[in-house]
Amino acid sequence: MCGSPAGRTLPRMNDKTDIHQLSNGLAAAVAAAGASVVRVEARHRRPSSGIVWSADGVIATADHKVERDEDLHVGLPDGRAVAATLVGRDPRTDVAVLRAEATGLTAPAWATDEGLKVGHLVLALSRPGQNIRASLGIVCALGDGWRTHAGGRIDRWVETDVLHQPGFTGGLLVDVAGRGLGMDDAGLRHRRGLAVPASTLKRVVEAILAHGGVRRGYLGIAVQP
């Protein structure tokens, strides 16, 4: 399990200029990527977050945070709240897709995870209210593909030590350049800050848009006297 964020120290800087450059760079990354993070109102308690998938209103979010199929709303970065409909869901990978009644939205620039390494700085972006929120952390564990408790295939184990703020789940995990790495999801493994990597998100979202869900083969067995 990852170490506590409170015990983490940043790499030593040469001077104050380096610290200011790092700080300004992180702020710029949040400002750029924050335009792709929305508020999702789909449960009775606190809102969660979602990621703009395409400019025509397609939103990706965490399935376990979508507790109802109707009366859904999405809070946009410009402050508007618009109605949304459920396109489909895949509980096995904990991904749901909504379609908001909005156009001209900004999808994130996606990065490949090939160069991602343990120790890289990352930012978890969420929008539980009208304003964007950000948590800074590091990648503390990477691994091969794995299956969730429900049997869904996740292409890569990506674990971070970012602080789980309210509305964290369903938000966007980005690198220091503001490029999307995946969707933050605290529900995949209890008490672990895991992310659904961009490759898995792409595969599942495209399947939901095409079929309303993910088609999987299965073996049916019946018994009789």
Helix proportion: 10-25%
Mean pLDDT: 91
Structural class: alpha+beta
Rough outline:
globular
Q: Measured on Cα atoms, how large is the radius of gyration?
A: 18 Å
Largest sheet: 6 strands, antiparallel, barrel
What's the end-to-end separation, in Å? 49 Å
Count of DSSP strands: 14
Unreliable spans are: none
Strand order of the largest sheet: 1-2-3-6-5-4
Total helical elements: 2
Q: How are helices and strands ordered from N to C?
A: HEEEEEEEEEEEEEEH
Strand content: 25-35%
Please provide a written account of the structure.
The structure is a single chain. The chain is of the alpha+beta class and 225 residues long. Helix content is 14%, strand content 33%. The chain has helices at residues 16-33, 198-211, and strands at 37-41, 48-52, 58-62, 72-75, 81-90, 95-100, 121-126, 133-143, 146-147, 153-154, 157-160, 172-175, 180-185, 193-197. The strands form three sheets. It has a six-stranded antiparallel β-barrel. A hairpin with a 4-residue loop joins strand 5 (81-90) and strand 6 (95-100). The chain is globular. The termini are far apart. The mean pLDDT is 91.
Task: Summarize the model shown.
This protein is of the alpha+beta class and 225 residues long.
